[in-house]
C-alpha cells in the first residue's frame, strides 16, 4: 500500500468512528461515546504518524502516539491525551466500568467531546501527504 492510501485509511476510519461516537451520544450512551472518541483520536494520530514516514507503535496510549506524531504539544494538551486514553480502559474493563459510567454524565461528556473534537481537527489539519 502507498503511504497516501495508509494515511487515508486511518483518516477515514477516524471519521467513521466519529459518526459512531456522535450516534452513541445522541442515544445517551455517554460512556461508550467517549470510548469511541478515544478511537477517533487514536486513528487520526496514527494517520499523522504515517504521514511523517514513521512506523506506528502498537499501543492505545495517546500520549505516546502524540509524541511519535511529532506534534508540538503543551502540557494542557498532554493532559487531555492522558484523560482520553483513560476512556479506553475505563469503558472496557469491568473493574473500571461502573465508576466510569457514573463519571461520564452529560456535563462531563459534553466537555470532553468538545475537547476531542478540537484535538481531532487540530491533528487532522497537520496531516500532509
CATH superfamily label: Nucleotidyltransferases  domain 2
Total number of domains: 1
CATH architectural designation = Up-down Bundle
Number of strands: 0
The ordered string of helix (H) and strand (E) elements is HHHHHH
CATH-derived topology: Four Helix Bundle (Hemerythrin (Met), subunit A)
Report the CATH C-level class.
Mainly Alpha
Rounded mean pLDDT is: 93
User: Residue ranges: pLDDT <50 for 5 or more in a row?
Assistant: none
Helix proportion range = over 70%
Morphology call: globular
Share of residues in strands: under 5%
**In terms of structural class, how would the helical and strand content be classed?**
mainly alpha
Largest sheet, strands/sense/barrel: none
Domain HEPN: 11-123
Pfam family, one: HEPN
Organism: candidate division WWE3 bacterium RIFCSPLOWO2_12_FULL_36_10
Protein name: HEPN domain-containing protein
